[in-house]
């Protein structure tokens, strides 16, 4: 599946949409996650569909979801911009950024430097760089380029091997451990447990995928996650904000 997604990205690069540059005030994902009142801090995702689950939210309205997340005072939002596999859109991110006051992460598969420039132009505050998609040296180049352009990066890994290879090159400020196995799509929070001890002390550990219940949240908190990235659990609820309150035990 990952190969299929990457092949599709290469095709899309031939007709990359590059909107007009607007003056955009960027927000820091790192600051938002370190200063959150919630422990772990929350990155809430706007996600209509996924390769593993198909359509997750039939009645999908990105702006309604963003408003509800804003009401719930999430620390940051993640917007899927991949069209083919996640039914996302660049336009969703552009419009969400206009109405929220927290950092917005562009969730996509970055394989080319032009996508970094595109992320700047559409108003993203941060981008995702996936360790299983990029060689460590290229990932580091993209990381530096992004920071030079005012974007932060969530560097995501799905295995200890990938993490080790990246850490030989550099220490990302925000490191995501994705609990989803890229071959089977199954999620296991043990992934966060196993990788947590290798995360540099100065990096923020974000546990991503497969977090649904207060028990899941407690588990990854105990494993050392300083932030979580959650999509599906909220997308299946009419009011995602209610799910956030229930998850964190807020009244
Ligand atoms: O969600 C998928 O099926 C998927 C498949 C292949 C690559 C990535 C995939 N998801 C991207 C994500 O990392 C998640 O959207 C994100 O961590 C939120 O996960 P969840 O809370 O389980 O929706």
Summarize the structure.
The protein is an alpha/beta fold and 251 residues long. Helices cover 40% and strands 18% of the residues. The chain is built from 11 helices and 10 strands.
Overview of the molecule:
By secondary structure, this protein is an alpha/beta fold. It has one domain (26-248): Alpha-Beta Barrel (TIM Barrel). It contains 11 helices and 10 strands. The chain has helices at 2-13, 29-34, 62-71, 90-99, 113-122, 136-148, 160-169, 190-196, 214-223, 232-235, 240-248; strands at 41-46, 49-50, 54-55, 76-80, 104-107, 126-130, 152-157, 174-178, 204-208, 227-230. The chain has an 8-stranded parallel β-barrel, surrounded by 6 helices. α3 (62-71) runs parallel beside α4 (90-99). The longest helix is centred in the middle third of the chain and has 13 residues, at 136-148. The model has no long low-confidence stretch (mean pLDDT 97). Bound molecules: the ligand O=C(O)c1ccccc1NCC(=O)[C@H](O)[C@H](O)COP(=O)(O)O.
CATH architecture: Alpha-Beta Barrel
Name the average pLDDT: 97
Radius of gyration: 17 Å
Number of helices: 11
Largest sheet, spatial ordering of strands: 1-4-5-6-7-8-9-10
CATH fold field value = TIM Barrel
Could you list the spans in which at least 5 consecutive residues all have pLDDT below 50? none
What is the number of independent domains? 1
What hetero molecules are in the model? Answer: ligand LARABZUK
Q: Work out the strand percent.
A: 15-25%
Q: How does the overall form come out from the CA principal axes? A: globular
CATH class: Alpha Beta
Series of H and E elements: HHEEEHEHEHEHEHEHEHEHH
Q: How helical, in percent, are the residues? A: 40-55%
Q: Supply the helix-strand structural class.
A: alpha/beta
Count of DSSP strands: 10
